[in-house]
Amino acid sequence: MILTVTLNAALDLTYRVPRLLPHTSHRVRHSAERPGGKGVNVARVLAALGHETVVTGFAGGATGDTLRRLLAESTGPLTDALVPITGATRRTVAVVDDATGDATQLNEAGPDVTPAEWAAFDDRYGQLLRDADAVALCGSLPPGVPVGAYAHLIRQARARHVPVLLDTSGEPLRRGIAARPDVVKPNAAELAALTGSTDPLPAALDARRRGAHAVAASLGPDGMLAITPDGTWRATPPAPLRGNPTGAGDSAVAGLLSALAEGLPWPDRLIRAVSLSAATVRAPGAGEFDAGAYEELRTAVRVEEL
Amino acid sequence: MILTVTLNAALDLTYRVPRLLPHTSHRVRHSAERPGGKGVNVARVLAALGHETVVTGFAGGATGDTLRRLLAESTGPLTDALVPITGATRRTVAVVDDATGDATQLNEAGPDVTPAEWAAFDDRYGQLLRDADAVALCGSLPPGVPVGAYAHLIRQARARHVPVLLDTSGEPLRRGIAARPDVVKPNAAELAALTGSTDPLPAALDARRRGAHAVAASLGPDGMLAITPDGTWRATPPAPLRGNPTGAGDSAVAGLLSALAEGLPWPDRLIRAVSLSAATVRAPGAGEFDAGAYEELRTAVRVEEL
């Protein structure tokens, strides 16, 4: 099975308003709630593709109960192994402006996780690693979890020879990368924040020097750049993408991880990541992927060795 | 006891952000949740003043559970008589911009109430009216509740000789007022939408001609204007108010209703309404009132007969 870790899972709310005008009152036209947090999104894509997937991390409070109820309604072989906490799972609110299609994002910080809860998670994670073919560590850290949490979790995975992918930002990325994950998947902004360079190729090389075995950088409409022990590749989607990019990065992680777990070589991993990511941009709902577009795109993504 | 009806109760979220910039992502600095909806706010003020208060309306889903849990933590003699429904209680989100103090409001529409749930509420309301000294009908209607709901509830209260106050807007106000409530409490914008006049005195006279026995219009910093069978009065706070006006109208309703239930004459009702309203603007938390300011303001509000 593939394990995804979401320490700061979220109940994602999407509100549609005719137009967002600060300092006025809005009647929300349509509201939707779905289970969220990067690792949860990755897991939902993996399960929809038919991969045995286990979700862990933390969930608590009424928002956590709703998250777990919605997660149970997901398509495919997805198991909920979230660790209960006293604090409440955070909410995120995406306010989509119907006039422009643009979203304004409001992200709660997340629950206070106690040292005992963090220790309980650590035990659970160790047990889950035994059956894992690969593990993804995704997203921000809630208050109370040590900033070096990902470095610790990476070392545990590596000690058990489970390939580990890290997708986070800021200080948790900086510290995590030093623990030598198999793959890091920054986007262009995260790479730039980490390395100070806005040119993806030198930035990815720098990121790799900081400890990652491979760097797979997602570059939005430009696809993906991978610097790996086996070579350097760029994979690009066939045409400029139109649609909602929410969740495209999480779908790319699902593509990389599922292909890695299947033992596929890097060019095939990149094709899967880029086509799933593009199929997510094309889907009408945020964070879902269009299965038809995915099948079409798989044969249309171009990979070139650099 | 005093009964307050909130058909579209809410879980009110307040988010503080450094500055709200549409189409960007925000990390929420501080988030708070409290039980909301106009009638719930009125009830919390009444209970804090020591009045036996009963809250009814609808609550459902995980958000409804949280609302009820928070309501149980309120100060004073407050009883929860909310009717359970299958749909989920709506959320409202107030995004407070720390740079300016201004709030951007996002209000979900509310749950779909089934005909059977509306009938169950109607039964419960009839039972609760038996022990009520006064009743307040407050706020918007959720989808599924007939637009003439308030007219129906007003007729039931009047048939049992329970004084009834209506605080709503739009079509529910227009229809409710025709059922001859004892008091309506519109604000200036609601009065203007109802009557087409932006001049409060002729607008309030027009509103009264539409069926209300008395009109008590809340005019923000200008206090309150009341046109009643006993006379016409204007009550004004002593000085321009600074602070957060959220909940000031609900505190005014609590003032009017508690004084009415105690059999006080109109000038005393207005003094209580205006001083509670002003003490709410002065309180640091949205929808709370400053008890010290209330005691001070009670002797400083000026009432003049017109």
Describe the structure concisely for a colleague.
The structure is a homodimer of 306-residue chains. Chain A has 306 residues and is an alpha/beta fold. Helices cover 37% and strands 26% of the residues of chain A.
Layout of strands and helices, then pairs:
2 copies of one chain form a homodimer.
Chain A: E1 2-6, E2 10-17, E3 25-27, E4 30-36, H1 38-48, E5 53-60, H2 61-72, E6 78-80, E7 83-85, E8 90-97, E9 103-107, H3 115-129, E10 134-138, H4 149-159, E11 164-167, H5 170-177, E12 183-184, H6 188-195, H7 200-209, E13 214-218, E14 224-228, E15 231-236, H8 248-261, H9 266-282, H10 291-298, E16 302-305
Parallel strand pairs in A: 1-5, 1-10, 2-8, 5-6, 5-7, 10-11, 11-12, 12-13
Antiparallel strand pairs in A: 2-4, 8-9, 13-14, 14-15, 15-16
Helix pairs in contact in A: 1-8, 4-5, 6-7, 8-9, 9-10
